[in-house]
């Protein structure tokens, strides 16, 4: 890797702060001698991620079939449906309790309701 040129802004700032060309940064000049290489990142995988692996070719017998369903999908749907049903039952129970409470007040304190 080539060193940065003397016209570089970073180079000029380091020179002003007392750095000498050819030495490393740090108290004992133990740091890097060359700048870190940069590259343009065009994917959305995040910094530090490896390049995406190339997908291997699919055999004729293993082609994706739109009729096939992933085995995890029914479990997830069933779990979500059970959660929805449980919430609806809880809401219905709250409404029944509220209706019972209102009926109680109507029967014993008709003037207040």
TrEMBL record:
The record's GO molecular-function terms, alphabetically, read: nucleic acid binding
Q: Where is this region: Disordered?
A: 20-79
- Superkingdom of origin: Eukaryota
Which intervals hold domain G-patch?
Answer: 6-52
Ranges of Basic and acidic residues compositional bias? 31-40, 48-75
- The protein's name: G-patch domain-containing protein
Q: Which organism is it from?
A: Oryza brachyantha
Lineage in the entry? Eukaryota, Viridiplantae, Streptophyta, Embryophyta, Tracheophyta
């Amino acid at each position: 890797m080539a060193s940065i040129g003397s016209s570089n802004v970073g180079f000029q700032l380091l020179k002003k702060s007392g750095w000498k060309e050819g030495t490393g940064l740090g108290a004992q000049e133990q740091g890097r001698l060359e700048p870190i290489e940069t590259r343009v990142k065009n994917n959305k995988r995040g910094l530090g991620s490896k390049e995406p692996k190339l997908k291997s070719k699919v055999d004729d017998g293993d082609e994706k079939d739109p009729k096939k369903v992933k085995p995890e999908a029914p479990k997830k749907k069933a779990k979500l449906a059970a959660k929805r049903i449980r919430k609806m039952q809880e809401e219905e129970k709250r409404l029944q309790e509220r209706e019972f409470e209102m009926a109680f007040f109507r029967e014993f304190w008709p003037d207040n309701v």
